[in-house]
Write a structure and sequence with these properties.
Elements (H helix, E strand, L loop, with lengths): L18 H18 L6 H10 L6 E2 H11 L5 H13 L3 E4 L4 E4 L9 E6 L5 E3 L3 H13 L8 E6 L15
Helix pairs in contact: 2-4, 3-4
The structure holds zinc ion (ZN) (3 copies).
Length: 172
Amino acid sequence: MSKTSHHQRSTKRSVQHDHSACIQTALSRAEKRCAEDGERFTGLRRQVLELVWAEHKPAKAYDLLATLSSIRSGVAPTTVYRTLDFLQERGLVHKIESLNAYVGCSQPDTEHNGHFLICEACSEIKEIENSEVSSWLERAAQAENFKIRSETVELMGLCFRCQPEKEKRAAS
Ligand SMILES: [Zn+2]
Ligand SMILES: [Zn+2]
Ligand SMILES: [Zn+2]
């Protein structure tokens, strides 16, 4: 497996990036975040976050529950949902509403809304952060006297790898 940095441009992120580093970073950030909030990063919270981070793909709550039940006994569905809520409130995971699934957040330390590119072929999700989009949406909502409760932008399509060769146009 190549040790190519996964910090390079997203479109070129290789399938074989060092994903264990992604997981380790996510876990240590979560631990820090919980400590700052005076919350315990319990074994269950760690396990759920680790499972959400298993891939850069949406994790469905019932799949998480099934996996958890196989590695620890007596996990109630409500416990898993509560744990996911907890992680979501701390910005450690995002909920992908259209898929009713969760994905780990790569920048939990910065205040932001979830903007996602979701590949319909391989399910890979890439989080993109753009504050201009947020402020534009805010102005648009304000013009309608609409009060935003939550903001999630989900773009469905094909990632670079999944596009047919002849249609590929790499970002310059
Ligand atoms: Zn990764
Ligand atoms: Zn995020
Ligand atoms: Zn894809």
